[in-house]
Structures are given as C-alpha cells and as structure tokens.
C-alpha cells in the first residue's frame, strides 16, 4: 500500500517538472526516461516478465519517435538529419530486441542514446538561450 502513495507522489512531481520545464529540460527528461525504461525492460526480459517488457519497450519506442519527430530538420541541417536516422535505427533495434528477446540489441540502443544524453547535459546555458531566442523569432516571423 505504501508504494501506491510513493508512486502517486512521484507522478505528481513528474507532472510538476514537466509543466515547468523548458524545451531543453523536456528533451533531457525524455532521453533519461528512455534509458530508464530500457533498463527496466532488460530486467523484465531477464525475469521473463513479458507483459512488463512489452510495456517498457512500447514506452521507449514512443519516446524515441517523439525525439525523432520533434527534430527541426530545416534549422538543424545535417546534424538533425543524422539524429533522425539514428533515432530511426534505435527504434528498429528496440523493436527487434523486443521480438527476439535480445538483451544485446537493447544494450546497443543504450550505448547509442547515452552519449547523446550526456552531450545534451553539457550544452552551455548561453547556447540554450541563443537557440530559444532563434526559435522565438522564427515563430514570430510566421
């Protein structure tokens, strides 16, 4: 019973974090969420808890699709195009790992996503503010 209260508290905190997060923080939360769910899915796979594995990998796929689909290919150019292709590849590997119950495929996705998340964390505040301002100006021009 105590876990129900703890989980409700966590969900409330997550909703508050999302409501107040800037786009950079939201992207970071998505990346970390995907990595966490990959780890949970691996544990479920090892325990042969296929329902939980399916739920976690479904969420991972949804997160990766969101990350891929929110890339601005016009502004991001070659970097955004490469990330788009990489997210596509990760989605394919998650799906293959799910179907084949292959931990190595999930490990590969983790090894691809972790450096992206780590680099995202290292973006300087000035660069984030510059990107927000450019995005704001782009919206006003439309």
UniProtKB/TrEMBL annotation:
It comes from Alteromonas aestuariivivens. GO terms for biological process: bacterial-type flagellum assembly; bacterial-type flagellum-dependent cell motility. Pfam families: FliS. GO terms for cellular component: cytosol. It is found in: Cytoplasm, Cytosol. This is Flagellar secretion chaperone FliS. PANTHER family: FLAGELLAR SECRETION CHAPERONE FLIS. Belongs to the FliS family.
């Amino acid at each position: 019973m105590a876990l129900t209260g703890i989980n409700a508290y966590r969900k409330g905190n997550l909703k508050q974090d999302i409501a107040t997060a800037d786009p950079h923080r939201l992207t970071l939360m998505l990346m970390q969420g995907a990595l966490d769910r990959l780890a949970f899915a691996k544990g479920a796979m090892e325990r042969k808890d296929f329902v939980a594995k399916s739920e976690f990998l479904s969420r991972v796929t949804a997160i990766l699709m969101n990350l891929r689909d929110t890339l601005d290919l016009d502004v991001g150019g070659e970097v955004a195009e490469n990330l788009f292709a990489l997210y596509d590849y990760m989605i394919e590997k998650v799906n293959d790992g799910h179907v084949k119950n292959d931990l190595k495929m999930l490990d590969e996705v983790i090894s691809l996503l972790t450096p992206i998340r780590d680099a995202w964390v290292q973006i300087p505040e000035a660069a984030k503010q510059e990107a927000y301002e450019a995005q704001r100006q782009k919206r006003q021009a439309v």
